[in-house]
Every structure is written in C-alpha cells, then in structure tokens.
Amino acid sequence: MGSGTRRRRRWAAFLGTAALAVTAGGAFACPANADPQQVDFATHCVPPPIAGIPPIDGTTTAKITVDNAAPKVGDTVTVTYTVVKPAASNPVDIALPADIMTPTGKVALGGAQSGDLTVAGPKKNDPVPGKGAFPSFSMTGTFTVTATGSITLSPGDYNIHTSYLLELDTPCTVITPPAPVSETITATGGGQTNNRAISLGTASGKPGDSVTVTGSNFAPGAAVTLAGRAGAAETADKATVTANAQGSFSGSLAVSDKATTGVVAYEGSAWSDDKGAGPAAYVVIDDTPLPANSQKVNSSVKAGTLSMTQAGDTVELAAVDYGKGGFSRGSLQTVTVKDFRGGPAGWSLTGKVTDFTGPGGAKIDAAKLGWTPVCLTKTGSPSTCQAGSPGAVGSAGATLASAPDGTLTGGEFTVDARLSLNVPAFTPPGAYSGVLTLTLT
C-alpha cells in the first residue's frame, strides 16, 4: 500500500470525526411528532476551528422528562433532556466507533421557578456507519423545587464532546431562547423548605479546569463550601466562598477528580439537606493521551436504591385469659433492608401502631404494644446496623433499627423484633387488631 493511500485514509478518518462534532445542528426533514413532549427548535452549532467547517444553523428535536410531575416544595426532581434526533447524518463513508460522545447541556426553568439546570450524559453512543444517521443521546440533572405552581422546562444549549483521534467540542445554542416548553410540573406546598440553589457556568471541563458556581438564598455572610461529587460520595475537590448580604455568591471550583458527576454547595462543615444545594450535573472530560498500541477500558458502578421487604403482613400474638390479662407475645414478620445507594447517608427504620380495636368498640391502647428489636448485618456490608431500644411503640412511634452516616455506606440487613401487647385483665373477650406501620428513611 502506498504512502499516499495511507494518508488519504487517515485524512478521511479525521473528516469523519470532525463531521460528528459539527452536525448536531444541521438541517433535516422532520416528520410530525408522535410524542407530545417532543419539540423542535432552531440551533446554531459551531464546529471546532480545526475542522474548517462553517457554523451550521439547523433544527434539533428534543424532549424533557421528569421523575416526579407533582412534587412538593423541597423535593428534588430528576430531569432527563433527550436529543431525540440530532440534525444531519455522517457525511462521509468512514464509520465512527461507539462510545466517543460525551454530551452536556442546560434546561431552562420557567413559570413559578426560573433558572438554568445543568445536565450531563454518559460517554456512550452506538457506532455510526458511513453516511448513517447520528444516534440520539440523553443527559440528566436535578433541581430542588422552591416555589409552588406550574414550572415549565425547555431544552437549552448543549455541547457534544467527541474523543476519537482528537478531543473536539461542538457547542450548539438555541437561536431564539427559550426553546418551546417540553414538560410542565405542578408543585404544591407542604414539603421541606430549602430555597438554596446553585447553577454552573458550564457542565463539563478537563481535569483541573475551574467551573464557576453561582448560588442564591444562602444565609447572609455564611461560609459556603463548594465540593465535587462522584455519585453520592464527595470528592477531595473543594473551595470556600462567602455569601453576600443577600445570601448570594459566585465562586470558582477546580475539579480534578475524573469520576465527578456533580457539584454541591453547603453551609457548615459537612453536607446537609437542610443547608445545601445541588448536585448540579458536571462531567470531567478525560483527555489524557493513551500510549501507542493501547486501549482504554471503562466501566462504571450504578447506584441503586434504599428499599425494604417483609416476610408477611400479618402477626398472630398468643391469646391471654380474661380476668388475668398479661402479655400477648409474638414475633414481627422479618424485614429485609437493602441499601444499595453507595453514598454517605445512613438510614432509619421506624414504626408506629394504631389502637387495637375489638368487639363492640372495645380497644387496647397503642401504648400497650412494646418490642425488643434485633438487627443483623450481612457479611461484607460497609455499614453495620443498630437495633432500636426495647420499649413501647405506641402511636407516636419508635426506632426499630438504623445505620449511621459514613464515608461510604450500604449493605443488606435483617430486622426482627419480639412483640408484646400488655392486655389489661378484664379486657372484653374477642379478637383485637391494630396496624403497625413501618417507615424506612
């Protein structure tokens, strides 16, 4: 094979990469949307200068979805911004490999609550054949609801970073912002009120790059810690700023940890839901060059949820004699707690019981039910569970078991308890039932 042929093939491969970085805003014929959440908006995309391709004005089709369309003030809502159909197709015959795209962007909030929410997506895409259509991609982020009423969400600017031969960025902006509303949520009161909020100047950067963090509604004059997050765990990337007399600030955080997925800000020495804001989505673009003849192998650990299951829903306590009374005893149906979140937060399992009702309106007071809790930790779990104290359950409730906060928590736990209902001596004969409700937080 001649050297001229090899040069042409290498140049064709480079053109394929550059095309991917610039065509997210090209024009295409868009059929009628079957999904009512999909919206079209005019987009201006600027290719990397090295590509030698002029800016492209075209149309993007996108949609926004949320995990909770009826939140309360204080709730955290997860937002997914999906670019359903990037404009144009791969203009060259050279196929582009999988997993070279890292998208980031912003979602515009309107209505009862305004501001920009940063979103980021994983470095994941299907291969793109020569002259083939570019795949869709999704980005996620979260925000805390701070006002009641209708809150609109519209797709905003986005950036496509490609890592193939060269590290290339193609920023795409909404030509006439805001773009059409794709999703609307309705917030109600009654939740925990924490109006602190942050926004980021950009949703991505190289290792060591600084990101501007802007905050509002913090305590006036408070020292505020800015910190990186890798999932639910805090990284070593930190900075401190001081809120002004209005509770606002603007500070800079250098982010070096390549596992970073977000940025938080909080008052005090450690993160608190009551005095913190975020995380705002952020991704570190790893541009470390690979040695010759090597391949970079990536993997990830996906955070799960905090959940509980119980072996049954009915407990039969032993009978007692009329005129004698005494303790009616039995065992709680075994509860299994699984904490697969992988963050610093612990958990608490509490219970409360109603009065026990019997024949003719007779009842046994809820305070007469007591328990002796037991909690076992499965081998290998990062956390160790603690059984609650023996004593009355009652209508006010008591702790059955818990696990403390820590640097890294999680695991699987088995919770049991001996139950005893102290029945007064001359309680009318018959069957009595109460409802014991368990709550895991």
Description:
The protein is mainly β and 441 residues long. The chain folds into 2 domains: 3-284, Neocarzinostatin-like (Immunoglobulin-like), CATH 2.60.40; 306-440, no CATH class. The chain is 5% helix and 45% strand. The chain has 1 helix and 30 strands. The protein has one helix at residues 3-22; strands at 39-45, 56-66, 76-85, 101-111, 115-120, 137-144, 149-164, 166-174, 183-187, 197-200, 204-205, 210-216, 223-230, 233-242, 249-254, 262-267, 276-281, 283-284, 306-310, 326-331, 335-339, 347-353, 356-357, 363-364, 369-377, 386-387, 391-392, 398-403, 411-423, 436-440. The strands form 7 sheets. Strands 1, 2, 3, 4, 5, 6, 7, 8 and 9 form a 9-stranded antiparallel β-sheet that branches. A hairpin with a 1-residue loop joins strand 7 and strand 8. The protein is elongated, with a radius of gyration of 28 Å. The N and C termini lie far apart (66 Å). The model is unreliable at 1-33 (pLDDT under 50).
| Major β-sheet profile | 9 strands, antiparallel
Strand portion: 35-45%
CATH structural fold name of the largest domain: Immunoglobulin-like
Rg calculated over all Cα atoms:
28 Å
End-to-end C-alpha gap? 66 Å
Shape: elongated
- Specify the CATH homologous superfamily of the largest domain: Neocarzinostatin-like
Bin the helical content. Answer: under 10%
Number of helices: 1
**Number of separate strands:** 30
Offer a concise description of the structure.
With 441 residues, the protein is mostly beta strands. The protein is built from 1 helix and 30 strands. It comes from Streptomyces liliiviolaceus.
